[in-house]
Design a protein that fits this description.
Elements: H1 2-32, H2 39-55, H3 60-81, H4 91-113, E1 128-131, E2 134-137, H5 138-160, H6 162-172, H7 174-179, H8 184-210, H9 218-231, H10 236-256, H11 261-264, H12 267-279
Antiparallel strand pairs: 1-2
Amino acid sequence: MSYFVQLVVDGLATGSVYGALALAIVLVNRSTGMINFSQGALAVLSTFVAYAVVQAGAPLLLGLLVAVAFAVVLGAFVERVVVRRFEGGDANTAVVATIGLLVLVSGIAGAIWSYDPRPFPSLFPNATLGLGGVFVSVRSIGTTVVIVAVMVLLQLLFRFTKLGLAMRAVADNPSSAALSGLPVSRLLMIGWGIAAGLGAVAGVLVAPQLFISPTMLDFTLVYALAAAILGGLDSPLGAVVAGWFIGVVENLAGAYVDVIGNDLKIAVPFAAMIVILALRPQGLFGRRTVVRV
């Protein structure tokens, strides 16, 4: 029994990493109506800014604050200079542009800091807590707590604040939002800025586990996209819950299903995702889209 619980705990810790980046993806989609494939690269570049601040002798908390500020400006700049050029055109073109941004930003980070993985300090103590034969690191607990707190704040933002409601209106129908007097361009820029800032937080949280490099979040981005889609692209709660689900299912399948093992366990959560989406296309917590004709 303790082995099973250990697998679940480890899966929740891994799922929190997926949920951290999935939250940023959901935020962009909920505020702008598109999927940003460059989210991971922007998060990595911002994490490198935190790394540079720490290497200069400053505390990590200051590095995190600088990274978040840098990310907010970077996200707003990307929306204003790049993404806005594709407004009013084919939505798929904008998505392809974000893939190009992923390659470009990763290349910039690699040119400045190289592609060699480097250790990154943690915001939380490097200690392990044990209870009843189950062990969990303080870092994993801290990461999970921060992600849950961010999820709650995003839920409150989109449900109970004028800014959040305005961002949702712009994502649902920019033309109607503009006719209602909402500053559509400014709200889109704010949405990208906040999402990039959230990505910086995610990068700083997971960098101690993955080691920092320009490709640090490339593989994690695949899981994060799966979590965002499975949970519902408009639901911060769904992104985190789906991230946990993917982490736990992957661990349990790899340990208990001999045919799968460690080599094929990556396919299990994606197979489960296909089944769930076939039954509920909007995701676990997503809103069903109703079109009136």
